Amino acid sequence: MILRRTGIAALVVSISLGMTSNVLFLAAFQFRFDRFFEPTRVVASGATPAELLRWAAVLDLFGYYLATAVLAYVLWRQLRPRNPLIADLSTMAAVGYALAGGVGAAVLAMVAPMLMHNYTDATAAGQPLIAAQFAVVLQVVWRAIWQFLDTILLAAWWLGIGWLLRAIGLGYPAYRWYWQRPRQPGPSPTSRASLWYVMFCSACFSCCGPRGGSRSV
Q1: DSSP string for residues in 169-208
Q2: d(CA 76, CA 196)
Q3: What is the pTM of this model?
Q4: 163: nearest Cα among 51, 85, 66, 59
């Protein structure tokens, strides 16, 4: 029961904070997608976008990464009896995803807003250097970690969970995740619902807003 509640709580936290983070990222970039392609326009945006970017990255850390690590543990506990090797390998990928993405979010939350504030206070001679540093930070976090490394690790986790759940029916109403207990041995409703969560997050990363492939710098 505790494990099931933990999994459901991780689902709720991840989806709610993750979507809020996406909105804040868009607000920090003033809802202009061209700024994702030109970081120097963002670094000169001022104090308000800098703080929006900071909170977007903080919520990103808690929503997409820390909550996902909790869910990965819940799934590992539920699904490991089906195939220990695949469960362990896929969970290692999920932990790597959470660690790498979390480090990227933490760096972005602390370093990028600082550079934006420094750019506002810097002289005209010093601003190009700060803009270059800001571009490097965004390239490392956005491209190298979030769009490259995390995509590989997330796909590995997704494939592992899909393999472990391949024999389980997915048509499970959301309102029964908590109230109905499994009547036979095997993964609980939380495990069944979690595949939908993994698919949902994967779609968000690959297709939606500032967390997907359209977010390039």
Answers
A1: -----TTHHHH---SSSS--HHHHHHHHHHHHHHHHHHHS
A2: 16
A3: 0.75
A4: 85
